[in-house]
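WARN no homologs supplied; continuing
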Amino acid sequence: MEIAYIYKNNFLKFNLMDKNIVKTYWKGDMTFESSNPGGGLVMDASKEIGGNEDGLRPKAMMLSSLAGCSGIDIAMLLKKMKVEIDTFDIIIEAELTDEHPRFYHKVACEYNFYGNDLNKKKIQRIVDLSVDKYCGVMEMFRQFAQVTIAIKYHNS
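OK structure emitted
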């Protein structure tokens, strides 16, 4: 299915499979509710800047999106490559610039895999595929931040 727009006298066509649409509603103060193709969410600011702390923080959600995108890739690849693990987690730590507009300029991604007799070679390949080939959010982050990757293996 395609959708067409006229923008600044130019006719634009988009394939709906190539884009997402979210709509965000102001709920008062600094609280917003946003639709998402998978459900809704609430965003708010911290009390230090006038918010009520009633929702997620937008910048931190970017980090969750990064971990979620890569995590989905990894879960699919673990299954496809028949790699057995007990579980895994991803910790993202990011540093904001000092000047406004403040954005993440350093991002560290730590992948932790738990299990016995972990196949480190295959797990490394899976993470590499997510980081270098499949995760679109990772690629977006690379456009504005220095991204580092670490993989840690833990016996269960």
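The chain has a mean pLDDT of 92.
OK
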